């Protein structure tokens, strides 16, 4: 049976699984190979670290689902990096959000990812694709972890501006970052530029301000519905990302999605997204073999 390698290249880490059929032969993990986040040199080092960390046979095909491909030239550049690390091996490259549908075993449907940011990808029955969101924390990513944390900060600061004493949310945020009073939150917020650091506060914000879960759910559901509409897809919807692990948000999101996409099944991805890359690599190998006389 053929051996393939699947790569999940996210914003904070790169995960590789070497598989033979359904059997995982080896796993390796390194830092992010997201070109937009870390640049070409660090991305190549991350890919090489994954390769070096895999204790097993050489793969016969490699597929990567990667974040950060939106910038002009990044697809071509990442492809060239893969060719250098895995020369003369059939390669496939897709967006990281596509791995959600692949890992769920779906050829069509809607993938909605809410982690540090937010993005939706819909694939219609005819293969038409539509991506909505994923603009990054400075431009959008409504409903994502950074957005939730920022909205929590805004509410805590607005409370202070009204002359009110710090409530449970403001108190929790101050304790989390070591601030002495609410206005100091602004200094911490502007000095720590990496969105992942603030997105980690999202569960705390949702716990202290449950109403924000409903607001975030509305934003996320609208993103998924927009992608579904453009792709001509009625579902199913697969949720992924660290934020959908919050029970309150997940329940609110299901309700909102029922309004936007009535009748569509909604599930949370329980399998690692890297298995989606393995599935893409296996399909690539099958297609490649079919071209050989």
- Spell out the CATH superfamily of the largest domain: ATPase, nucleotide binding domain
Strand content: 15-25%
Total strands: the figure is 10
Indicate the mean pLDDT. Answer: 88
Amino- and carboxy-terminal Cα gap: 19 Å
The description of the largest β-sheet is: 5 strands, mixed
Q: What integer value in Å does the Rg equal?
A: 20 Å
Supply the CATH class of the largest domain: Alpha Beta
What is CATH's topology name of the largest domain?
A: Nucleotidyltransferase, domain 5
CATH architecture of the largest domain: 2-Layer Sandwich
Elements, N to C (H/E) = EEEHEHEHEEEHHHHHHEHEH
Descriptive overview:
This protein has 293 residues and is an alpha/beta fold. The protein folds into two domains: 3-96 and 273-291, 2-Layer Sandwich (Nucleotidyltransferase, domain 5), CATH 3.30.420; 107-269, Nucleotidyltransferase, domain 5 (2-Layer Sandwich). The longest helix is centred in the last third of the chain and has 21 residues, at 211-231. It starts with a strand and ends with a helix. Strands 3-2-1-4-5 form a five-stranded mixed sheet. It has helices at residues 35-53, 74-85, 98-103, 145-161, 168-177, 184-191, 195-199, 202-208, 211-231, 247-260, 274-291; strands at residues 3-9, 13-20, 23-31, 62-66, 91-95, 109-114, 118-123, 129-133, 237-240, 266-268. 44% of the residues are buried. Helices cover 47% and strands 20% of the residues.
């Amino acid at each position: 049976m053929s051996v393939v390698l699947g790569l999940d290249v996210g914003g904070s880490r790169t995960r590789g699984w070497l598989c033979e059929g359904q059997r995982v032969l080896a796993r390796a993990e390194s830092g992010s190979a997201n070109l937009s986040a870390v640049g070409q040199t660090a991305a190549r080092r991350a890919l090489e670290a994954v390769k070096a960390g895999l204790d097993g046979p050489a793969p016969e095909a490699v597929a990567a689902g990667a974040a950060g491909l939106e910038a002009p030239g990044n697809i071509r550049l990442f492809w060239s990096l893969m060719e250098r690390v895995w020369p003369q091996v059939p390669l496939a490259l897709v967006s990281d959000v596509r791995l959600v549908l692949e890992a769920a075993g779906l050829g069509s449907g809607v993938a909605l990812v809410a982690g540090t940011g937010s993005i939706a990808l819909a694939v219609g029955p005819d293969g038409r694709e539509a991506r909505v969101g994923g603009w990054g924390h400075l431009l959008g990513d409504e409903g994502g972890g950074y957005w939730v944390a920022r909205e929590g900060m805004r509410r805590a600061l607005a409370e202070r501006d009204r002359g009110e004493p710090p409530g449970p949310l403001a108190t929790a945020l101050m304790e989390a970052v070591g601030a002495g009073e609410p206005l100091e939150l602004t200094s911490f917020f502007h000095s720590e530029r990496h969105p992942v650091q603030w997105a980690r506060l999202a569960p705390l914000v949702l716990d202290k301000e449950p109403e924000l879960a409903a607001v975030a759910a509305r934003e996320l559901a609208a993103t998924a519905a927009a992608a579904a509409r453009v792709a001509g897809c009625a579902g199913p919807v697969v949720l992924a990302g660290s934020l959908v692990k919050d029970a309150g948000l997940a329940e609110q999101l299901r309700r909102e999605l029922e309004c936007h996409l009535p009748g569509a099944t909604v599930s949370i991805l329980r399998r690692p997204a890297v298995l989606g890359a393995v599935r893409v690599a296996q399909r690539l190998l099958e297609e490649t073999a079919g071209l050989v006389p």
